[in-house]
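Possible regression after last week's pipeline update?

I re-ran a chain I had predicted before the update to compare outputs. Posting the input and the new output here so someone can diff against the archived version. Not blocking, just want to make sure nothing changed silently.
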Amino acid sequence: QVQLAESGGGLVQAGGSLRLSCAASGRTFSNYAMGWFRQAPGKEREFVSSISWNGASMYADSVKGRFTISRDNAKNTVYLQMNSLKPEDTAVYYCAARLTRSTSRPSDYGYWGQGTQVTVSS
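New output (post-update):
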């Protein structure tokens, strides 16, 4: 089992920045790919970014150049640095874990955190 806990969400003005953290406990963190997803009211959960066990990362087109994913295996934590935030980034952000290679499909991830709210005001 892997337990995940997100933090760092909040209210920020458009153009501002936030850094989300996801702390993992349980199995060997370094073996897991980690993903960030988000879900806005009335919309499906969508892929934001992911990072594989070897550091390879992927981004949704909507966040490329603005968001950066990273991981610190010594701290069992994955981060999502979000810059130049837009109102359309408003959503609940979830981190998720799966073994080895990351993907962009929510259904591929077996472990999920509870989510953290990010609200971007215009």
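Follow-up from reviewer: compared with the archived run. The mean pLDDT is 95. Marking as no regression found.
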